[in-house]
Amino acid sequence: MKPVIKEEIDAMRAQFKEIDARPAKKVAQAKARKKRVVYRQLEKVRKKANSISDQTKILDHSKSKMIEQLYKKATPKKPKKEYVVAKKGVQVKARKGKVLVDRQMTKDARKHGMNKWGKETKGKQKGKGSAKGPGKGKEKGKGKGKWGSKMK
Fold this sequence. Notes:
Layout (H helix, E strand, L loop, with lengths): L5 H16 L3 H30 L5 H15 L7 E4 L12 E4 L1 H9 L4 H5 L32
Parallel strand pairs: 1-2
């Protein structure tokens, strides 16, 4: 065994960190492919936008709206987070794009109206009247049910 100096160890560590920091060849190729796809899509949208802006029959306001919609569709969207409820005996790792939550967190969110159904019914009155209108709901003893009009 040769005696190793501290400076040599630090130099080797720095060298390894530099190697680790470099992206792998496959990763770099995949990123380049994604960039090319996005660039092609944006080029197509740019051509369409130019053709729309050259038209004279359409109003400027509607032209800008159409172009805005084109660009909105073409831009890449970030994937949304997926919430995974932790259960007993089921091992799920919280990875990229996944958030691990427990049952109580989901119940609290539901209680405070954080889910999609709570948002829709927030401004509406619950339990007041019916969709059919007053007096058009079920009426007892009018020939409906098991016994029909026999019961009075």
